[in-house]
Design goal:
The complex is a heterodimer of chains A (about 475) and B (about 250).
Chain A: H1 15-36, H2 41-56, H3 79-92, H4 94-116, H5 120-137, H6 146-164, H7 171-184, H8 190-201, H9 214-227, H10 234-245, H11 263-279, H12 288-304, H13 309-325, H14 332-356, H15 366-381, E1 388-390, H16 393-403, H17 424-433, H18 438-444, E2 447-453, H19 457-463, E3 468-473, E4 477-482
Parallel strand pairs in A: 1-2
Antiparallel strand pairs in A: 2-4, 3-4
Helix pairs in contact in A: 1-4, 1-5, 1-14, 2-3, 2-16, 3-4, 3-7, 4-5, 4-6, 4-13, 5-13, 6-13, 7-9, 8-9, 11-12, 11-13, 12-13
Chain B: H1 11-30, H2 35-53, H3 74-91, H4 98-114, H5 118-132, H6 143-157, H7 173-182, H8 186-198, H9 205-216, H10 220-232, H11 237-249
The chains are: A mainly alpha (about 475), B mainly alpha (about 250).
Chain lengths: ~475, ~250
């Protein structure tokens, strides 16, 4: 929780140096985010879906991109993000998407950093955690709705802090915020669970100092109303619950527990329990135990699923900042020296990270997609019965963006729980793992062209398989074409 | 919306049962439980649950493997880890050595993530530490907290329904085709129909099903070819009549 109830006393650092530290810190945060920002298949299907919405000015009734999906079940998830991505990509270019993703994610981290700690010493120490936030997110950081989810969560923490301190949160703000969040990312469901959970944990606080619980419940009510403002109404809520709580999520690495034998993944939970212990001793005594319990819940969530690691670090920052603000171990001269050095290092690193730039097409099969489309057209023209294009899940989005449904491809990452819950998701898994069923699956889906990752198991199997020839090979992708 | 707790008994069930028995035994004996009692119940539950299905890998080579929530039986044990820290927070909050105790429990929590077998040490040490510092004036656990501690592992057992049915429905070819149609996977239905048709000596129901699926896939040319084979050499008069009707209905312009 981010706002201390009273503004802490400044530590005496010259205002200009404090300003320099803030600017350099922001540069480092933005630089690190930009350095790790990527445009993967998912980002491309946002653009493709948004283009479809803009072209047709209507909600789709059938999936225009995949030949194997349950056609009539396509619900455009995160429609606001799809529209926004399409507008940015088509008017400003793909690189602008990277910049937009960077700005949103960096804003989330910066907001948390600057709101949680107010003193120079607090900000100096918390900057490390802010950069760690980005680093934890780095493996999963790409231009998609998730960046809005991170920003929404930071704002939610700020709102909880206001409620804890007895400040009012205007219902209209909650309704509007929920409406925007629901249209940008599925994580808007946190607006229901986190305030209710926080209210429950506040029961640990003695009644005399306990904040009123009713505003927490009221926020959930207003958020519920706001989240209904989407193109699908209440159906979208049910759909979002289904997406979030599907057991299929366990198949994806970022929804599984991190590898705790890797020390890097142990840092976030270790910091979490350390802050939990410190919070019992330092900081405001009011609400100490509920805040410890909240942190513990997020530690558990991060142990359960890698994706929650980022949110855990956000909660850690929110709790550590006010504690640091009350602690002043350095004199003005020492603090000035450390702040000047830190500012210099951050500025250099920030500029270096930004100057490296990023190629929005570095992780998608640009050339292979061209070859695959030409091969599919040739097979179709020749009247071959096996003429479908089969691709891995994470490149489907790019094919939607590049081909726009001509030809259709096997599957993508839009929605595995409804759109591809017809056995396609499982069959795609068999291909991805390169199981002995691969030939049968390719026959079932009448695959004439296989666009796949170079060096993957399926690539190796098809290189030695009769009836297939390698038509294209580049740094990341291969195209195999059926010959009989 | 949610499925029920899975029917087959597993480590979660043993754990939950033992935990519930421990808590209520403590309540019955004393009229009220203290944190140490709860910890003892947890220790018993963990030991019984672990012995039930080797959930802690106590007798396996992967004793030192890291915690993975998605492994069988591990989510309730994550809830156990959380419960232990929460109990330490609540149980020793007014004690002079509370920071050292909580730090020790927190460190063991982290250790049990690196090495899942260390959970036993975590629970035992936490139990001993809290019991040693027990202050009967301050250690009483509110009923709602006990209910929550009991509820957390229970919630972990409530599983959302599997998002997808088995990928290969069993039964006769006709039933399998119907099942794949129901799941809107015409490619799978087509594969079953093709296999069925290949096994027929003379074109019969398998051929007819193949033509129908081809038509649904929008491949009317292929459907007409199959229907022509049926009409030329039908397995029965009924099949021939159906093929003729379909051929007329799906005529390609």
């Amino acid at each position: 929780m981010t706002t201390p109830s009273a503004e802490p006393r400044p530590a005496g650092l010259p205002r200009s140096l404090h300003g320099l530290l803030v600017v350099a810190g922001l540069l480092a945060i933005a630089g690190l985010v930009f350095h790790n920002m990527d445009l993967l298949g998912d980002g491309f299907w946002y653009v493709a879906s948004g283009r479809w919405l803009l072209d047709h000015r209507a909600l789709p009734h059938a999936d225009p991109f995949s030949f194997a999906s349950v056609k009539e079940r396509w619900i455009v998830g995160m429609p606001g993000a799809c529209l926004l991505f399409a507008l940015v990509a088509d008017h400003l270019g793909l690189r602008a998407l990277l910049v937009m993703g960077t700005i949103v994610e960096a804003a989330a981290v910066a907001l948390l950093w600057l709101r949680a700690a107010r003193t120079p010493f607090g900000r100096l120490v918390l900057l490390l955690l802010a950069l760690f936030f980005v680093q934890v997110d780095a493996t999963d950081l790409s231009v998609r709705g998730q960046v809005f989810g991170d920003l929404g969560f930071v704002l939610l923490l700020g709102m909880l802090a206001r409620l804890r301190d007895g400040q009012r949160v205007h219902p209209l703000l909650v309704v509007l915020g929920a409406a925007v969040w629901a249209n940008l990312h599925y994580s808007f469901l946190l607006l229901f669970f986190v305030p209710l959970g926080a209210a429950a944990l506040l029961l640990l606080e003695p009644e005399a100092s306990r904040p009123r619980l009713r505003p927490f419940v009221a926020v959930v009510f207003w958020a519920f109303l706001g989240s209904l403002i989407n193109p699908y109404g209440w159906r979208y809520l049910a759909f979002s619950f289904h997406i979030i709580f599907t057991p299929i999520a366990d198949d994806f690495a970022f929804f599984r527990s991190p590898d705790f034998h890797d020390p890097a993944w142990l840092v976030a939970p270790a910091c979490g329990v350390a802050i939990l212990v410190l919070r019992g001793r330092y900081g405001e005594s009011r609400c100490a135990m509920p805040e410890q319990a909240l942190l513990l819940v997020f530690v558990a969530a991060a142990c359960n699923s890698l994706r929650w690691g980022t949110l855990l670090v956000a909660v850690e920052m929110g709790l550590l900042g006010p504690m640091l603000d009350r602690y002043q171990p350095l004199g003005v001269r020492q603090l000035s020296f450390v702040a000047a050095v830190a500012s210099g290092v951050c500025a250099v690193l920030g500029v270096r990270w930004i100057s490296r730039g990023a190629d929005p097409l570095q992780n998608v099969p640009v050339a292979a997609a061209e070859v695959a489309r030409a091969a599919q057209r040739a097979q179709y023209a020749a009247g071959r019965s096996m003429d479908q294009v089969v691709n891995p899940l994470h490149w489907g989005g790019y094919l939607a963006y590049e081909w726009n449904g001509d030809p259709k491809y096997f599957h993508d990452g839009r929605d595995q729980t409804v759109l591809f819950d017809n056995g396609v998701y499982e069959d795609a898994g068999a291909l991805w793992k390169g199981t002995p069923r691969f030939a049968e699956v390719l026959d079932v889906y009448e695959a004439g062209v296989v666009l796949w990752e170079r060096g993957s198991r399926l690539d190796l199997l098809l290189r030695g398989a009769p009836g297939w020839k390698l038509a294209h090979e580049d740094a990341i992708a291969v195209v195999h074409v059926r010959t009989k | 919306m949610f499925g029920v707790i899975s029917a087959a008994p597993g480590p979660e069930h043993t754990f939950l049962l033992a935990f519930a028995v421990g808590v209520f035994a403590a309540l019955l004996c004393r009229g009220q439980a203290c944190v140490g009692d709860l910890l003892l119940a947890l220790i018993t539950a963990a030991a019984v649950g672990a012995a039930g299905a080797n959930a802690l890998a106590l007798d396996a080579a992967d004793f030192a493997s890291s915690f993975v929530a998605q492994d069988p039986g591990q989510r309730p044990l994550l809830a156990l880890r959380v419960a232990v820290v929460l109990l330490a927070m609540v149980g020793v909050r007014r004690h002079k050595d509370r920071d050292a105790t909580l730090a020790c429990v927190a460190a063991l929590f982290v250790l049990s993530l690196v090495c899942r077998g260390a959970l036993v040490v975590d629970v035992v040490v936490a139990g001993l530490l809290i019991r040693r510092q027990r202050d009967r004036e301050t250690c009483h656990v509110p009923v709602w907290l006990m209910a929550a501690l009991l509820g957390i592992p229970a919630l972990a057992l409530v599983r959302a329904p599997k998002g997808s049915a088995p990928s290969s429905p069993a039964g006769s070819p006709a039933e399998m085709i119907a099942a794949w149609r129901e799941r809107r996977n015409l490619f799978r239905a087509h594969a079953v129909a093709l296999d069925w048709a290949r096994k027929e000596a003379t074109p019969g129901d398998g051929y007819l099903a193949l033509a129908e699926v081809d038509h649904e896939l929008g491949q009317d040319h292929k459907a007409q070819k199959t229907l022509a084979k049926i009409v030329a050499n039908p397995a029965s008069e009924a099949v021939r009549r159906a093929a003729v009707d379909h051929a007329r209905e799906w005529q390609v312009p």
